[in-house]
Amino acid sequence: MTVIYAILIFLVLIFVHEFGHFITAKACGVKVNEFALGMGPAIFKKQKGETLYALRIFPIGGYCAMEGEDEDSEHPRAFNNRPAWQRAIVLAAGSLMNLLTCVVLLIIIAFWAGQPTTTLENIEPGSPAQAAGLLPGDTIVQVDDVKVRSWDDVIQSIGQAESETIQITVVRDGEEIGITSDLEYNKEQKRNMIGISPASERHVGSSFAAGIKNTGKMAVMMYDTLRQLFTGDVSVKELSGPVGIVYAVNVSAQSGIMYVVYLAALLSLNLAIINMLPLPALDGGRLLFLVIRKITGKRVTDEMEGKIHFIGITLLFMLMIYVTFNDVLRFIVPKF
Prior knowledge:
Blueprint: H1 2-27, E1 32-48, E2 51-66, H2 84-113, E3 115-123, H3 128-132, E4 139-143, E5 146-147, H4 151-159, E6 165-172, E7 175-182, E8 184-186, E9 191-193, E10 196-201, H5 204-231, H6 242-255, H7 257-275, H8 283-296, H9 302-332
Helix pairs in contact: 1-2, 1-6, 1-7, 2-5, 2-7, 2-8, 5-7, 6-7, 6-9
């Protein structure tokens, strides 16, 4: 199942990315020579109109080969002959599709798990909350002088309280009741706790909001990791390639299908962000050249840009080999 999950994740995320390029290229009138899923020899291919559709043997990549993408072409519908704004849309569409995929997957996870409410579901035995008289079913409406509207408000108000006790106002059987509870400092989480957990509810609107919010948080985390990578705070040895991803899929699959979905969302956003970096061979690098050529005119030819991107993709393959070698040393060698 690990292998199946890994292959499905690879194929779906690659398909989504390349399909973004494909549909926008077609919409902008660009001639697409081949749309391929996978790399290496073709195990299935079919010519339909001007485009060859292929499924290739290694599920570690894919491509949307457009006329005039990496070389000079006189074809009127070649990529290099389209207006700059159309080329920009086509280049950005792959990462945008991966971003949207991440949002959709996190919305599904949020709906599946439910959103925490301010109504209590469990009171931990022996906790300050139990000693104070809080009960399952109580709905917290105020903590000290702060009105609460979400579970995050409850956590923040209790967690940052500076006194030894806290006044909690709850609604029980339609009536408001004031309860005073002691606080217990959790050194691991570095905040006050009283031993309560919320009831959850499934709501489409709040799930949409949570999916978008969590995508933003995940993106900030990834950009911070990239910053640490460039500053040297994180070693290149910590990067993972296909082997490391399969290992992560295995760990996630043992925890349940939703963990696999979360990993897929993480990888989809990672693919979106990495591809938009302004490096040769990546979509971000191509967008950078689009701007440069708009400023410099004909000084940078399609052939020159194609050669630079070829060097870039060669370096990326070398990095993948290095990362895969490290993954083997980390995840496979120790088992033998």
